[in-house]
Specification:
0% of the residues lie in helices and 51% in strands. It is mainly β.
Length: 126
């Protein structure tokens, strides 16, 4: 009932910047939490950042804190991930996720999210 579509991925050199977008459609009024996860080849899916839709409370993984910024545009039903000072280890498929649950104990756990985008590739080389 909620559809998510990522955009803005691609290839960038180390030290560069990239902005990912996630457009939400469908029953967006029931979405309370949105976040970004990423998965590199041969590794498990990791939490990147999340934001609450009502209060814009944010949380970041230690690996991206200070470099990435999560934000949203309520009018456009879109979430963003501004990625600066990119490193080769940031290379991964990035997934947009959303949850319609009213309360989540651990917002970094992928299994607490109900809806997922198809994923978008981010490649950082040097």
């Amino acid at each position: 009932q909620v559809q998510l579509e990522e955009s803005g991925g691609g290839l960038v050199q180390a030290g560069g910047s990239l902005r990912l977008s996630c457009a939400a459609s469908g029953r967006t009024f029931s979405t309370y939490l949105m976040g970004w996860f990423r998965q590199a080849p041969g590794k498990e899916r990791d939490f990147v950042a999340r934001i609450t839709w009502s209060s814009s409370s944010t949380l970041y993984a230690d690996s991206v804190k200070g470099r990435f910024t999560i934000s949203k545009d309520n009018a456009e039903n879109t979430m963003y991930l501004q990625m600066n000072s990119l490193k080769p280890e940031d290379t991964a498929v990035y997934y947009c996720a959303a949850s319609s649950r009213g309360s989540i104990r651990d917002t970094t756990d992928q299994y607490n999210y109900d809806y997922w985008g198809q994923g978008i590739q981010v490649t950082v080389d040097s």
